[in-house]
Amino acid sequence: EICDIERKESRWHGFFAGIQPWPRCDTAKDEETFAKGSHLFGILRVTAANHCFPGDVFSDLPKPVWEAVYHTTTNHLGLALLDVNYQMLPGYDIVIEVDTQVGLKRNMTPGDSLSVTFMDYRLFVINGEIYLHINADTVIMTRLILKAKGFGNDDEMHDKFTAEDQAFKLNNLFGGDQLEVTLAHQFNTLWTDEGVHGKNFAIFSVPNTSHPDNPASIYAEIHITPNHQVQQIVPERFEHISLQRVFERVWKKGTRKSRNLNLDIANRRSMITVGNVTKSDIAPLASFSTVDEHRFPGKSAPFKESAHGGSCCVSFSVDDINIDGTRNNHHESLIVGIAHTKVSWKPWYGKSHIPQKEKDLVPHTHYVSFFYAFDPQPPFQIRARSGYFCLGHAPETFDDTLQPEEGGVFNPLSVLSRNRPLLQYNVTFDCPQMHYISTFIEKAGDPTSTVIGYGLNDCTPRLVEVEKEEIARLLFPDP
Question: What is the 3-state composition of the chain as percent helix, strand, coil, each rounded to the nearest 5?
């Protein structure tokens, strides 16, 4: 775990753990701008919404309490500066209410069927800049400017959001008083040339081979499997589109035919894209089989084939891929990411004539992940993918002290994630029902290792270190 946000306000939970390396350009200047020892920054979604307890516990709660959890409008941004051991630097941990300050918050009443404005927060460091990616009705992005309190010139910053393209300093809701966050501009919406408005678009960059001194080209992953689909984007440029075009893209059959949402201020700012979505050939078969393929072969497989992006990307050299010459897996470097899929709800789950024991074999909304490796140039063909895996719970402890090999600080709320285990085929796995990977980066100071950050059951966050060698073994089957 990286951020004990709950100690500040017990009714809120922080999850979807994310970290990114600090985009350093000038070490002396950076240490003047921030506290010495800052190597990473962490991000959390801070909200009352959670799945910390079994479903029957929530269903037995009084209706106002249930609605406060499942229909909350509270989805705040948590940020913190971290040292090389992933510990928060004192005074540099904050929580911000973003949607209200930029005029995008959706008005909701208890029982409203609409989702909240912002759901998931992720950070990406591209070309030395920090970009904030949020799942809303659409995927929206802006650039963040982080600095220490009292450092630099604030003359060009505005305390009120008076114009869409002015830098705007956000007010901290609570937390430390040393970190200040500025939005470079209003959020832009990432539509694609196909009109897709999905979620969890991982953002990555590729060096400009024709002009090496120019900034790297920026891409967004639209789909992972069965075909890897990628769109080149220009995050800070946009064109205004009509409200009618927004409505045509987001409207779903059977839903209301009217729309009056503050969020459409951002939805009308259509991010500039370059060219068409690239679409690779179908991804290769998984490197190993898992129990679902034996129990439910072929089209009866419970996990849906179309996977969402989890987090991307880490570069693997030829030596990384071939495990220092002990393998002959691939002859070129690759980019590696992590995707997730789940057992989707289907109408037959609600049919009374279907025996409950059949439904219990493949309970819906249970998550698994897999690694995938692709070429570092268009069309970004996937060259290898692993079988499914799940990421586990935080280790149990009897005296609030972790074993030395675990590292970090024990989070007493982590025990709650065990209330909802991953279940399939009457087997209980030592993993949460839902794990969502929001970070996958190379470990600071160690190019042979990676760091994965994930949320457990929308309840608590966790970080784990995984050697590149282990990932290569999962991606490529034994010779």
Answer: 15, 35, 45
Query: What is the CA 62 to chain-centroid distance, rounded?
Result: 32
Q: How far apart are CA 160 and CA 166, in angstroms?
A: 10
Distance separating alpha carbons of residues 139 and 135, to the nearest angstrom: 5
d(CA 361, CA 347): 16
SS3 of residue 84 by DSSP: coil
Which pairs from 320-329 meet CB under 8 Å and 24+ separation?
320/448, 320/468, 320/469, 320/472, 321/373, 321/472, 321/475, 321/476, 322/472, 323/469, 323/472, 323/473, 327/472, 327/476, 327/479, 328/479, 329/384, 329/472, 329/475, 329/476
Q: Are 178 and 149 in contact (CB under 8 A)?
A: yes
For the cut 80, the answer to whether the pLDDT of residue 23 exceeds it is no
End-to-end, the C-alpha distance of the chain in Å comes to 36
Angle at 83 between CA 172 and CA 121, to 5 degrees: 45
Residue 445: both structure tokens together: 């100071």
80-98 tens-digit pLDDT: 988 888 888 899 999 999 9
The residue to which tokens 């893209």 are assigned: 249
Which one, of 403, 400, 347, lies nearest residue 4 by Cα? 400
Question: Which residues are within 8 A (CB) of 399 and not within 5 positions of it... i.e. 6 or more apart?
Answer: none
Q: What is the pTM of this model?
A: 0.89
Quote the CA–CA distance of 118 and 189 in Å, as a whole number: 13
Is 327 buried (19+), middle (13-18) or exposed (0-12) by CB count in 10 A? middle
d(C-alpha 479, C-alpha 476), whole Å: 8
Helices (H) and strands (E) in the chain, counts: 10, 24
In tens, the pLDDT along 422-464 reads 998 888 999 999 999 989 999 988 999 999 999 999 889 899 9
Residue 182 identity: T
Nearest to 121 by CA among 94, 137, 145, 139: 139
Residue 66 amino acid letter: W
